[in-house]
Backbone:
């Protein structure tokens, strides 16, 4: 069914036994996942020349802005669990993009960008911004602002 996002969500033009809303949705979860996948694909394609994934880009950007940063604070700031974060950080360490500057005797790691991490991040920011501009152009500033407000509400359910 083709969606008409201007329709009221309380009514539907389908058959009497339909479970969808007027915009054609039978599951908000699937709709949100599909949108997320499409947007992630846009960023993934744009970042290909840097060999970074969108998650890796986000990690490098956070390490840059928070560094030196420990894993716990980074996980909290990014809304990721430590186990997932540590796996992703290991990949970035192996690529030579981040390093731990803590002393061997310290238990908590202190992460910073390496020179190559800073270089790849600078290249990635240009590519990232091109997608940001595409989304802004596609949605318009008002709808983009509404989307960000809705995302914030969804993050706090």
Residues:
């Amino acid at each position: 069914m083709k969606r008409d996002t201007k329709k009221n969500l309380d009514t539907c033009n389908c058959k009497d036994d339909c479970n969808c809303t007027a915009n054609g949705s039978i599951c908000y979860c699937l709709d949100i996942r599909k949108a997320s996948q499409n947007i992630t694909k846009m960023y993934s394609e744009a970042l290909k020349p840097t060999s970074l994934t969108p998650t890796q880009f986000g990690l490098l950007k956070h390490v840059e802005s928070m560094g030196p940063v420990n894993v716990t604070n980074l996980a909290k700031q990014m809304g990721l669990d430590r186990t997932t974060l540590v796996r992703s950080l290991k990949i970035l360490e192996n690529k030579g993009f981040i390093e731990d500057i803590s002393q061997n005797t310290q238990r908590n790691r202190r992460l910073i960008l390496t020179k190559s991490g800073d270089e790849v991040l600078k290249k990635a920011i240009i590519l990232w911004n091109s997608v940001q501009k595409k989304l802004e152009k596609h949605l318009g500033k008002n709808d983009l602002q509404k989307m960000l407000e809705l995302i914030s509400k969804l993050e706090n359910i």
